[in-house]
Amino acid sequence: MKHLILLLLAAPFLLFAQTPKERRDNLLKNPDLPSLLKAVADDNAIIRHTAVRLLAQREDATTQLVALLKSTDPLVRRGALQALCLKNAATVELLGDMMDDTDVNVRLIAVSQLAADKPAKGKQLEILEKTARKEKNAAVRDIASKAIWPFYRNTVLLRNRSDWDHDVKVVQDILLPAADWRFSLDENNQGHLNNWFKTNFDDSAWKTIPIAVTWEDAGFKYDGLAWYRKSFKAPSKPEKFNAVELHFESVDECAWVWLNGIYIGQHDLGTSGWQTPFSLDITKEIKWDADNVIVVRILDTAGAGGIYKPVHLQVLE
Ligand SMILES: [Ca+2]
What we know:
Leucine-rich Repeat Variant; 10 helices; 2 domains; four-stranded antiparallel sheet; Jelly Rolls; elongated; alpha+beta; binds calcium ion
């Protein structure tokens, strides 16, 4: 009897004295729900990880995982959110709440999940728009910005049209003026939200730089987003033509282009696209014998950037 009492008295102490390795081994041997929920609050980070991982594998722990999103431990919140995303159990509302998390890795998981379901709409779109505007972390903001980028167009060029059997000849090749393009950095990716692509946007406060040189050579040591705007006079309408294109000898690195306020297409090959020429069809958008406004948004992630080679207006037959 005396021995039994001693044993009973010592038992909590013995349990308390378990090493983290022993506690983890016990958990792995006996991963029942109560043990797991206790272990997510363990002092030891590895045990907390193990517990969240084991909870994530269970079919019956969704409610518990949602509750763990309120844990004070970012590692636990991260693991729980990841698990809920994998289970498709993270609602838009829940992901929106997690966008206010103090831990950037939690926000990365949440924004990636929000961005995955395309096209973004309703509350999801609202959260992504807010993140694109307000988020402090650039990686999180970029994911949101890409997910809600509203401009895409893929016009098949004349020479690529399957119904076009003729040779394509450039019958007029006019260089756009290289001097005096309006230029503005767009460090926070707000340009398109502020109508910088529109014809009547007032760019008089912007700097003036030439194209056909890198923006570094024009005085801007900068990597990121920037916009160019230029008004140019188009020639009078040719009697005969089959298409009109803007031909870019190259931009460094990606480009999104508008003519007269209308989005005409993109050159978006990532970092490798900086020396690839491209053309965009403007047959419907050009205004003959009148002023036209070309707007080019450029993303340059490293090294030199900008419209560093000439831009041509090409009339094709
Ligand atoms: Ca570059």
